[in-house]
Specification:
Largest sheet: 4 strands, antiparallel
Shape: elongated
Subunit structure: Forms a membrane-associated complex with FtsE.
Pfam families: FtsX, FtsX_ECD
Distance between the termini: 22 Å
Structural class: alpha+beta
Number of domains: 2
Protein name: Cell division protein FtsX
Number of helices: 10
Strand content: 5-15%
Subcellular location: Cell membrane
Radius of gyration: 32 Å
Function: Part of the ABC transporter FtsEX involved in cellular division.
């Protein structure tokens, strides 16, 4: 009987405040969709870091005869064979180095023509103007500074460059976008909480006579509050369900089909369905607990039971 009463009161409350209930559902859906999207963006950045950092190289560019007049690091002239052997030997002796590959001037010129063949500068370059280099794959890409400090300023070395620095700028941008999404989500969450509190108070005010009678006949505080808390929880659950549908549909149509980004952007290792599905229970749990707790604390003060 009690369960039937609570369920009937939930239906009455939702129908009486249909407009505000709809607003609660929409605001909860949007805020939790942004919340889930932010979590997936964080996973995406972590996935991309693991994918790309594993592929980055540290490059040691060697001096050529044209660098002597234009670069202070090459003031002593082009790199000698003995210097190249010593650099290679030192690299192989470093425990953080996984693999070392050598790129000759001819290979560097060929790669430059492949990448920048349409550039006006490409037609004026000759192979002897290109720099020899060692491309080093590290066991831990974070330890670039160890290589840089060991070889920067050494005779025959023009510069030491780390491709990780280029990726760091990209990841900083992605993290900034993610923080922006979290900020919007927080604002939407506040709006949703305010709507939930107002909806519960309006519902309680419209049924103040019934609640007064229930207090007089000795009904417990929780028994009086239960229909209002359940109303908020149901509205939140509907909004959470819509947020989950939005995430699943968004993942399906942007990455797998529709925009088909997984095939158009093959350089990006997108998060899989397992990451999306893992977020859905958290979103649903939040969609129930957040409105229920907001209603509980609002009613404690308003009903004074």
């Amino acid at each position: 009987m009690r369960a039937q009463f609570v369920l009937s009161e939930i239906g009455v409350g939702l129908r009486r405040n249909l407009t505000m209930t709809f607003a609660v559902i929409v605001s909860v859906a949007l805020s939790l969709a942004l919340f889930g999207g932010s979590l997936l963006m964080s996973d995406q950045v972590s996935t991309m870091k693991g994918y790309w950092y594993d592929k980055v190289n540290v490059s040691i560019f060697l001096c050529n005869k044209h660098d002597a007049d234009s670069d202070v690091n090459c003031a002593k002239g082009a790199v000698t064979e003995d210097q190249k052997k010593q650099i290679l030997s030192d690299l192989h002796n470093m425990s953080i180095v996984e693999k070392v590959s050598y790129e000759s001037q001819d290979q560097a010129y060929k790669h430059y023509k492949e990448q920048f063949g349409n550039s006006p500068l490409a037609s004026s370059l000759t192979p002897d103007q290109m720099q020899e280099s060692y491309r080093i794959k590290l066991k831990d890409p974070q330890k670039y500074q160890v290589v840089a400090s060991a070889f920067n300023g050494r005779a025959g070395v023009q510069s030491v460059q780390d491709q990780k620095g280029i990726l760091d700028n990209l990841f900083q941008l992605l993290n900034l976008m993610n923080r922006g999404a979290l900020g919007v989500m927080a604002m939407m969450l506040i709006v949703a909480l305010l709507l939930i509190v107002n909806t519960v108070r309006v519902s309680a005010f419209s049924r103040r006579r019934e609640t007064g009678i229930m207090r007089l006949v000795g009904a417990s505080g929780f028994y009086i509050q239960a229909p209002f808390i359940a109303e908020a929880a149901v509205a939140g659950l509907i909004g959470g369900g819509l947020a989950c549908v939005g995430l699943v549909v968004g993942r399906y149509f942007t990455i797998d089909h529709g925009m088909d980004l997984s095939h158009k952007l093959t350089l990006i290792n997108f998060v899989g369905w397992d990451a999306v599905l893992a977020k859905l229970p958290l979103i649903l749990a939040t969609s129930v607990l957040m409105p229920a707790l907001a209603a509980f604390f609002a009613l404690r003060k308003y009903l004074k039971v």
